[in-house]
Amino acid sequence: MTNQHEVATAYIDEWGAIAPEVHRAAMGLREQAEKYARMTLRNEDAGHTLLAKASAIVTRALEDQPGGITNLSAYLFQTYKRLALDELEKEKSRERILANRAGEIAQTGRADSAELDQQILVEELRKRMDERTRQVFDLLVLGHTFEEIGLMLGKSSRAVRNNYYDHIDRLKKEIAY
User: Fold this and answer.
1) Alpha-helical runs (H) found in the chain
2) Predicted local confidence at residue 6, as pLDDT
C-alpha cells in the first residue's frame, strides 16, 4: 500500500485498483492487521501484502455491488482475515509435506542428509519470502518461465525477473554469515 496518509483519488496497487475509501479503511485497520499477522502468520510483511490484496478485492466488490457493503472496515478486515488464514493453511500444508518427506526418508533410509538439509533450507527461505516472491518461486518450481509468470501476473517478464532476483539477493545477504 502507499505510504501516503491520505489518498484523494483511486490508485493502482500490484493487486489492482484501490478506492480512496478502501485505502482509508485499510489505514485505520493497519495496527489490527499487523497484530493479526504477527499472531497467525508470524510475519508482519506478509500481513501488509495481504492487506493490500484485500483492499484491491474489496474495491472490486464495491464496484460489483454498489451499496451492498454497509460496514466497509468490517468487510475489509474479514476479507483480510480470510486471506491470512488461507496463507496459514498453505504454510501448514507445506510443513506437513516436508515432515512426511522426512518420515519417508527415515523409514526407507534412502536419502542422504544433504538432500534433506537442502529441502529444509529451501522451506526456510520460502518462509522469509514476501508473498509475491513466494508465488513466483512456486511457479518457477512448477516449470513456468518468467514470460509465462509475467502474463499470469499482468506484468512484464523483465519486471517479474528483476523483482524476483532483487528479493532473492536481499535474502542471501540477510542469511549470510
Assistant:
1) 20-40, 44-64, 72-108, 113-128, 131-141, 146-153, 157-175
2) 44
